[in-house]
Write a structure and sequence with these properties.
The structure is a single chain. The longest helix has 10 residues. The protein is α/β, with parallel strands linked by helices. It has a seven-stranded mixed beta sheet. A three-stranded mixed beta sheet has the order 5-6-9. β7 and β8 form a beta hairpin. The termini are close together. It has a single domain, classed as Rossmann fold, CATH 3.40.50. The chain binds glutamine.
Amino acid sequence: MKVGVLALQGAFSRHATLLDRVGVTPVEVRTPGQLADVDALVMPGGESTTMSMLLEISGLREPLADRLAGGMPVLGTCAGLILLARNVADGRSDQRSFGVIDIDVRRNGYGRQLDSFEADLDVAGFDLPFHGVFIRAPVVERVGGEVEVLARVDGLAVFCRQGPVTVAAFHPELTGDTRLHERFVEAL
Ligand code: GLN
């Protein structure tokens, strides 16, 4: 099983390390040809405005939209979550999202004081808490009826799934805990 990691910008390399540890072959994806070769994709954290622009320049926007429409499993974290969301507030006007999970998000929505923070998350299906690292994270402001919320912080959804689309507002690749990647890969 080959799992791509979108490698245009941002925190992609540690995702690849964790995917390797949970037994799949990680493939860095920068071109349509590389995308065509993977069974699933991780869209990492970073800067969603830049990634949105690089998706156009690389020619990946359309083929990725097609794969997502075709039900390719995808895990989006932080900026990746923003790029997969239905509606994005406080984005740049030319930033585009794929709209494949029915959530509305606000970029950098935790505000200045909580710019970056960490929290132990009770995740549905995990026996022990998962340590979540939030870095200029998006706030999920609305969750559609078809979306399953797998973890919350102060009542706000931070980990969600809708069919093949899983999103986390935090960076699950930073702590060395492989459970989240394991769960993603097990469902493939
Ligand atoms: N604030 C970033 C954005 O808007 C996301 C931050 C992150 O991915 N850690 O894209």
